[in-house]
Write a structure and sequence with these properties.
- The protein has two helices and seven strands.
- The protein is of the alpha/beta class.
- The protein is elongated and about 85 Å long.
Amino acid sequence: MRAVGRLILCVTIVVGSAVATSRAAEQEPAAVQTEPMTPPAAPPASAVPVTPKDAAPPPSVTIIGASDAHGVLGRDVRSAADEDMGRIVDVVVDRDGHVRAAVIDFGGFLGVGSRKIVVDWNALRFGKIVNKKGSITLELTKAQVAAAPEYKEDTPIVVLGASGSLQPLQTIP
């Protein structure tokens, strides 16, 4: 916005100078001007330079084939015995941005009586996803998931793992 204001100010000064010069040329010279002209005020030295949007480097682009990757939020989760385990409603990442776990909306009927359970990301298998209706397989039984504590925001997260392979999060002092 400041750049637009500066541009308008500069254009006004240039146009004003051109008009004044053309009027002075039409009139007979009266007296020689002895006072020096003051230049327009310069922007403060602390002003941040404005970089045009065209100067930014283009973003990197990666193309992933439609059959090579799929979204997971809202996907149905099934056990290895093909039992309905719920659906993925969130993904848990650590401070480095690495995916650690998935939050599954488990149990209930039409959202009544369901609860959120957190399962280790490594306990999920994505091989059966071939289209939008494909489900994710969880390497846990329905009884194991039913016995897990419920996930609640702003409380410590208990992550249910299939083979105990989940490493604890490192606390940062």
